[in-house]
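Chain A, query sequence.
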Amino acid sequence: MPHTEQSIQVALQRELDRRGHQYILPNVMMDWGEADLISVTKAGYLQEWEIKVSKSDFRADFKKGKHRSLCISQHDWLAQDVREPGGRCTPSCFWYAIPDGLVPDTDVPDYAGLAVMAGDVPIIRRRAPMLHRRKIGEYQLNWLLRISAIKLWAVKLNLRQAINKNYALRGMVNATKAA
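Chain A, predicted structure.
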C-alpha cells in the first residue's frame, strides 16, 4: 500500500514520541508556510518535518522561499531569538520524510535530514544538521500549545457533528422501516 502524507505523519509521531520528543504537531502554519509536522525535542529544539509522497511534490518544494533561508545555516532570519515575544518560530533542524526510493539521497539538500519509510517505520538515513542553536521560547511554545487546543476542539466538533448525523440517519432508516 503506498504511503500517504497522513500515514507518514502517524509513523513519525509514533517514532518521535518513542524518542522522547515533547510536542509533536501535524500541519502547523509557521513563519514561512505550513509545516507537515513539527516536533520539539526534550532539549527544547524545534524540528520541522516536510513529508513528500511523490517526486513532483518533492521537486516543487524547492520553489518555496524557505529554502533560500535554509541554505545558510546562520542566516539572521533563522537565528533571530525565538525566546522573545514575536520572535521567529524557526526550526533548528529541517527534515524530509519520504517513502524509500522516492528520490536519490543525493537529491536531498545538505541542510536537511532524511527519514525514509521502511514499511510502517521511519528510518533516519541522514541526520539533519543544526541550522541554529536557539531553543524554542516560552512565547512560541505557548503559541504551539494554543494551536493544539484549537485543533483538538475542531476534531471534537467534527466528531460530534458526525455522531449527530449518524443518529439522524439511523432515525430516518428506522422511520422508513416502520412505514
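Residues 73-79, 81-86 have pLDDT under 50 and may be disordered. Strands lie at 23-30, 33-40, 46-51, 93-99, 112-118, 121-126.
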